[in-house]
Amino acid sequence: MKNTMRQLVSFDLDMTLLDHATYAIPDSALEALKRLRERGFVVALATGRDMDNHYSREFRDMVGADAVIHMNGTKITVGDKLIYEHHMDRKLLERILDFAKTQGYSVGVTIGDEDYYTHSEQVEAHDIRRWGECGRQFKDPMKLLDIGVRTLAYVGAPEGAHRMEEAFPELKFLLFAGLQGADVVEKTASKAQGLLRLCDYYGIDVKDTYAFGDSMNDYEIVQTAGTGIAMGNALDVLKEAADYVTADIREDGVYKACVHFGLI
Fold first, then answer.
1. Strands, E, within 129-262: which ranges?
2. Global confidence as pTM
3. Around Cβ 167, how many Cβ atoms within 10 Å?
4. Which residues in the chain show pLDDT less than 70?
5. What is the spatial distance between Cα 120 and Cα 245, in angstroms, rounded to a whole number?
6. Taking the CA of residue 11 as centre, how many other CA atoms within 13 Å lie in the half-sphere pointing to its CB?
7. Which of 25, 104, 182, 241 has its C-alpha lying 20 to 30 A from 247's C-alpha?
């Protein structure tokens, strides 16, 4: 039966749709996405990634979302149309990079097919531990000052993220569910703000939205959406903030929640 009321369902990518154990989206989640689209729901991705870059385009196309909240709300696209973007202040960016370089932290971002990170050897070691190889094209991170950056990523232990957050109170370091890094975002930006902008674009009341997530960059959107859904593999603090906790990503959590709420 067709969805007669305009509603929006947003999904985080990593460890909500994309299982890092297999680096694939479970068939059950793909089936849920297909049924949501068939029923007329607006399907959105809300992620810390830039889904247009080299490492993410495959999954962007696989999901086939109507809209994407990229990089924690600092870039929003509907189809091929850019409807919002925000860049980090250049002086702030320079201070972050200088601090990370001198303190031994790895901070940077992937733009297109290239990676710009301080202490790139730490990113390389992280990739080798996870995938057994590192195929990144590392460039001088200070070039970011002339390219323009919306958000950054920190790669390392939580202690480093906490120390950097103390040094930069205007930023939030949103830990990944695996606690091996964090999204680095200005406090004024969030997936929740991206959701509100999409609601305004589509003319949808925020109470008619659902948001799925698993880590700290999902905290605000899970609280803001009409119904916030935490994956079974989510951080405990996100589960506490959510309206509903579904099964683990490896136990068809996305599909089961969609059935539970009568979305499919």
1. 138-139, 152-155, 171-175, 181-186, 209-213, 227-230, 244-245
2. 0.86
3. 13
4. 1-5, 177
5. 36
6. 29
7. 182
